[in-house]
Design goal:
Blueprint: H1 4-11, H2 18-43, H3 49-71, H4 78-102, H5 108-115, H6 118-128, H7 135-153, H8 160-183, H9 190-211, H10 221-248, H11 251-254, H12 257-272, H13 279-303
């Protein structure tokens, strides 16, 4: 990492008002993660899936660690570091890696819609953890499952079912990692906590990928550019922005990217890759987003 980059990042000034910072963080998360599906699609032309996830998160984590080291006043304990590694393994090692693996056979828009089921899995995990779940929340879960069924019925690709199952597993691991992040003690500094999570999670993914025989194929300009974009924008910038939203807004606001990301991904997939937007895709997208909206609505009612 160039020496000038940490200094440049520490000199970047966020908006002065809290509302401006929240708006900036939302814009970064919406655009970065909505476009990440297209970037993963391009990067997979040269990078195998688990190595792609591992390397971009490992390098991004190292970069953020240099930034955090210049500003952190309190260093994490061994327990906090261990917890960051656990959460990072769930969010980065398993979730991001499985998403890239599934996207070898599933379109960008379809993958984004399926990842929107994270709040539904979060509801199920909360129920297992002992939180009472209202009947309406189970209706939201049922709607989400119905949307997934419609989505797969409308996909004529012979390999879409296995890819969809893998992506659903990625969504499950993301929900599990987010649940652990709310329960475990993590470093107080946002940059340091994010750096440890994605860095340790990326390191574990990279080791598993290398041990499993994954190697980078002939590297073209497009996949390389997509990899750099994923590392700098979809990982470093987006994870910091998402961490800020978790700490300074309600869970509903922080998770609102689940509404917007599929729209961005479907639009980019149709415009740049020519992915078809069928009637089944539109119906399934609407059903899944309604189910997610219901989950958020019941969660807000519970908090009132």
């Amino acid at each position: 990492m160039p020496r000038a980059l940490p200094g440049l990042l520490t000199r970047v000034r966020p908006p002065r008002t809290q509302g401006g910072r929240v708006a900036l963080a939302l814009a970064v998360v919406y655009l970065a993660w909505g476009s990440a599906y297209l970037a993963v699609h391009v990067a997979l032309q040269s990078f195998p899936p688990l190595l792609l996830s591992g390397l971009r998160n490992l390098i991004a984590g190292i970069g953020l660690f240099f930034v955090a080291g210049r500003r952190a006043s309190v260093w994490p304990t061994l327990v906090q570091t261990r917890n960051a590694g656990i959460v990072g393994t769930m969010l980065v090692g398993f979730s991001s890696g499985l998403l890239a693996f599934g996207m070898r056979t599933v379109g960008t828009g379809t993958a984004a819609v399926m990842v929107a089921t994270v709040p539904l899995f979060a509801t199920i995990i909360s129920a297992i953890a002992g939180r009472p779940i209202a009947k309406g929340e189970w209706v939201a879960v049922a709607l989400g499952l119905a949307g997934i069924f419609i989505l797969n019925r409308g996909d004529a690709s012979s390999s879409s079912t296995s890819g969809s199952i893998v992506i659903l597993c990625a969504a499950l691991f993301w929900a599990g990692g987010a649940h652990l992040a709310s329960r475990l003690a993590l470093p107080a500094d946002l940059f340091l906590s994010t750096a440890l999570q994605i860095g340790l999670g990326g390191a574990i993914s990279t080791l598993i990928a290398v041990a499993g025989g994954e190697r980078v194929a002939a590297l073209g300009f497009g996949p390389l550019f997509a990899f750099v974009y994923l590392m700098l924008v979809a990982t470093m910038a987006a994870y910091v922005a998402y961490g800020f939203l978790i700490r300074h807004t309600s869970p509903i606001v922080a998770s609102s990217c689940m509404y917007v990301n599929p729209i961005v991904a479907v639009a980019l997939g149709a415009l740049t890759l020519g992915e078809p937007v069928t009637g089944s895709t539109l119906v399934a997208t609407g059903v899944i987003l309604v189910s997610v909206a219901l989950s958020f609505w019941f969660d807000r009612r519970r908090a009132v």
